[in-house]
């Protein structure tokens, strides 16, 4: 089969990805073999390719927003999946199920957790395997390329929204407006929130208004009203101070990315006093995924996606890096 792997982590201008021919993977016990139809291009893939994240698997195949069909399985999979079933593969791939975090329903913090496209090969290829216990059933009414961004961008945005502790009918600020943010905004608006978007791109600002944002402004500009909650999607640490300053008393800023550039020195009185909170968002649980995908089945989300052929994976990553993608980028594989 044809696929892409990270040859040597580094800047996209140095072409860290290489296209190679590789064997079709064999599903092990409890695993599904999936023929990949589409795979979303996530900013985390960019962090893996550019070396912002440490190497967990040499020559890894990136990609963790996979929509495909089941074509085979290993031993002990059990009932629930059939040949030809449409299935999703997301970021969270494995947890121990036994540690105190897993037992408390916080498997996203499991020290033994493993991730698709980082610890194990992902979806920038014609086939992928996934543990059946971590495969996702997908809502009807969406095209494959619309479903792919839901499997990480959507799920992480959904968890970030929960971590931001937005009160009912509250004011939410969103910093950065890419694949995850444009989905989280729709969830918040559907629940009655007033959403204000801070982002650098003209196309992104236009999309935010089309989706129902109450206001749009530059990435570091103050919103027109104090915010009850905010989510930072852009991996830019210098946006943390203005986002904290924009919060009303008792407000929460959730940082949604797996990687963030350095945060400048904070001033306690200006940024954190009056019970303002700064918290990170780490991966997701399967419960988050099930809840969000159920929500997407009940509320038709507008998914803005730009398609690329599989042989254009390196260009898709570069376009994402340079801000040339509005919404999400998706590889059309098969």
Automatic annotation (TrEMBL):
Its EC number is 1.1.1.1. Residues 1-10 have a biased composition (Basic residues). Signal peptide: none annotated. Residues 28-140 form the Alcohol dehydrogenase-like N-terminal domain. Coiled coil: none annotated. Keywords: Metal-binding, NAD, Oxidoreductase, Zinc. One of its GO terms (molecular function) is zinc ion binding. Its cofactor is Zn(2+). CDD domains: CAD2 (cd08298). Residues 1-24 are annotated as: Disordered. The keyword rRNA processing does not apply. Pfam families: ADH_N. InterPro entries: ADH-like_N, ADH_Zn_CS, ADH_Zn_typ-2, GroES-like_sf, NAD(P)-bd_dom_sf. GO terms for cellular component: cytoplasm. It is an enzyme of class 1 (oxidoreductase). The keyword Zinc applies. It catalyses: a secondary alcohol + NAD(+) = a ketone + NADH + H(+); a primary alcohol + NAD(+) = an aldehyde + NADH + H(+). Belongs to the zinc-containing alcohol dehydrogenase family. NCBIfam families: adh_fam_2 (TIGR02822). This is Probable alcohol dehydrogenase AdhA. It comes from Rhodococcus spelaei.
């Amino acid at each position: 089969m044809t696929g892409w792997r990270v040859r040597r982590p580094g800047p996209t201008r140095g072409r860290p990805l290489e296209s190679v021919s590789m064997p079709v993977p064999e599903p092990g016990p409890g695993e599904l073999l999936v023929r990949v139809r589409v795979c979303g291009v996530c900013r985390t893939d960019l962090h893996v390719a550019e070396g912002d994240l440490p190497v967990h698997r040499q020559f890894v195949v990136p990609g963790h927003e996979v929509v495909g069909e089941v074509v085979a399985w290993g031993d002990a999979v059990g009932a629930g999946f059939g040949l030809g079933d449409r299935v999703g593969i997301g970021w969270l791939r494995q947890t121990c199920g036994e540690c105190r975090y897993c037992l408390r329903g916080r498997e996203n913090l499991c020290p033994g957790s493993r991730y698709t496209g980082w610890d194990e090969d992902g979806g920038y290829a014609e086939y992928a395997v996934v543990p059946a216990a971590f495969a996702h059933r997908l809502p009807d009414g969406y095209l494959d390329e619309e479903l792919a961004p839901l499997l990480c961008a959507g799920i992480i945005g959904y968890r970030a929204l929960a971590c931001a502790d937005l009160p009912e009918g509250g004011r939410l600020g969103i910093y950065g407006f890419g694949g995850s943010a444009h989905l989280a905004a729709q969830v918040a608006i559907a629940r009655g929130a007033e959403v204000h978007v801070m982002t650098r791109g003209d196309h992104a600002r236009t999309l935010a208004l089309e989706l129902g944002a109450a206001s749009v402004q530059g990435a570091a500009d103050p919103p027109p009203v104090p915010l009850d909650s905010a989510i930072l999607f852009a991996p830019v640490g210098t946006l943390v101070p203005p986002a904290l300053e924009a919060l009303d008393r008792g407000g929460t800023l959730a940082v949604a990315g797996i990687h963030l550039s350095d945060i400048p020195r904070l001033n306690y009185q200006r940024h954190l006093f009056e019970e303002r909170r700064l918290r990170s968002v780490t991966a997701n649980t399967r419960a988050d995924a099930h809840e969000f995908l159920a929500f997407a089945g009940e509320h038709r989300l507008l998914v803005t996606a730009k398609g690329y052929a599989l042989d254009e994976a390196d260009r898709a990553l570069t376009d994402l890096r340079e801000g040339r993608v509005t919404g999400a980028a998706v590889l059309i594989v098969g």
